[in-house]
Amino acid sequence: MSGIGGTVRRAGSRLVMVVWLFAVWLLLWGRADALIAAGGAVAVAAVSVLTRTPATPSIRRVRPLWFAAAVLEFAWDLLVSSLVIGWHALYRPRRVRGAIVEVDARTRSELILLAVTTSISLRPGTLLVDPDWDRHVLHIHAMPVRSQREADGARNGVLRTEERLMRALVTAEDTESTREDR
Fold first, then answer.
1. Rounded to two decimals, what is the model's pTM?
2. Spatial distance between the Cα atoms of 116 and 80, rounded to a whole number of angstroms
């Protein structure tokens, strides 16, 4: 019975991903009419047939207060990074230095890693360069970085983002890895 339940759960999870891809298609076009919807259905069907559409990662629990705090902290980070990059762009454009910073993620959840990489890539001054999903290592380009201290600060900023998201979203992978660490 668990085999059938697991199969149904996986199929439902993949269906969620297909619906998500279709929604993204519509958002990219910015409008929805019959031709765009039909094209999206064909594109999503082709992606589903030609690739192994991943299952939607499972979230065991969302902690609303921690999630709200994570959203507010992201908004604050967005504001501060925008001001820093704007200041450097206007007053010191030739002196801005960047660096590739390696970050060892603590999470084992692909969902949390995806949320972290999306969050840091949305902020001015940071960009995901090379994720190593198997080793849970992220390589990011950060600016301004003129010293080891600033590189460490960029790394710590990514780790703080990861920590916020791990507090807000409880995933099966992180729950299992926490149990294994004990």
1. 0.66
2. 18
